[in-house]
Amino acid sequence: MIDAARKARWIAQLKSAGIDEAALDLRHILLAAADDTAVDTMVTRRASREPLSHILGDKPFWTLDLKVTPDVLTPRADTETLVETCLKQISSRNAALRIADFGTGSGAILLALLSEWPNATGLGIDISESALAIAMENAVRNRLSDRADFQTGNWAEGISDNSLDLAVSNPPYIASAVLETLDPEVREYEPRIALDGGANGLDIYRILLPELFRVLKSGGRMAVEIGYDQAEAIMALAEKAGFAGIALARDLGGQPRVVSGLKP
Ligand SMILES: C[S@@+](CC[C@H](N)C(=O)[O-])C[C@H]1O[C@@H](n2cnc3c(N)ncnc32)[C@H](O)[C@@H]1O
Questions:
Q1: N or C: at which end does the chain have fewer Cβ atoms within 10 angstroms?
Q2: Which residue range(s) make up the domain with 29?
Q3: For residue 4, with 0-12 CB atoms within 10 Å meaning exposed, 13-18 middle and 19 or more buried, which class applies?
Q4: Atom 27 of ligand 1, nearest CA residue
Q5: pLDDT tens-digit profile of 80-97?
Q6: pLDDT for 99-108, tens place per residue?
């Protein structure tokens, strides 16, 4: 049993480091740590603004438990909007869908979709080999490795034309200059290659959307995560790439978060 005074000291240490959710973070640490010394070490790491997911080594996403290291972007709750969008648009739960997730990172989106569609198979692509190693571990951890393959690649290069039922991506979309203004947890600890979307954050979509159109079968669907202020620009890029039925979905905070479309 940990006494209240000690708990209050840990919370004060976290708060003075600028951590708003100090009590919640401490609760997670207390659940994970074996003893007081381990709590002390974890609180000190957190007070230096290391992300909680790196300290704990995992993060829940959708219904899954995902391993997280500094090699992958920590999956965000907002990204569950992308999973929900796909589930709403493709209602045939038992279809043998062929899915690919471009920039799969921890494997979060692909594995969440595979967990919902028992006959779907999927490919997770990333330019980072160290990220893919984590994604593979996550597939095994969540008993989805028999339906998930992973390969190194530069977006959709090498993927056959007209081969997919669903193409999803949460690409890097933060404008380079904005990166420097983000919290230290993101700025100093998360992989830059997972975040940096070039001068105005749209660079990747210009390459990716025409590529997603190319690799989808006719009647196939795409869904991409976007930044809160990018909806108009990305819907226009999706239209230019040839997509029909372009729609915008908002996250739980009401912000524009996902653009989806259909290849006619
Ligand atoms: C914003 S993260 C998304 C990770 C994960 N899909 C998620 O939603 O949590 C973007 C991912 O794109 C990958 N990436 C960056 N450039 C890439 C490229 N040229 N080709 C493929 N993947 C790339 C990064 O390594 C990173 O894993």
A1: N
A2: 4-48
A3: exposed
A4: 105
A5: 999 999 999 998 889 999
A6: 999 999 999 9
Q: What is the pLDDT of residues 234-255, one digit of tens each?
A: 999 999 999 999 999 999 999 9
Per the structure block, which two tokens stand in for 19? Answer: 């951590």
CB 172 near ligand 1, within 6 Å: yes
Does residue 147 share a domain with residue 212?
A: yes
Say if residue 8 is in the same domain as residue 132: no
- Which residues have a Cβ under 8 Å from the Cβ of 13 and sit 6 or more positions away? 43, 44, 47
What are the CA-CA distances from residue 172 to residues 39, 103, 198, 199, 200 (Å)? 34, 9, 9, 12, 11
Cβ of 169 below 6 Å from ligand 1: no
Asked if 109 and 169 sit in the same domain, the reply is yes
Q: How far is the CA of 172 from the centre of ligand 1 (A)?
A: 6
Summarize the confidence of residues 145-173 as an average pLDDT: 98
* Number of other residues whose CB lies within 10 A of the CB of residue 122: 26
Which of 126, 136, 174 has most ligand 1 atoms within 8 Å of CB, for mutation?
126
- Return mean pLDDT, the chain: 96
CA of 257 to the centre of ligand 1 (A): 16
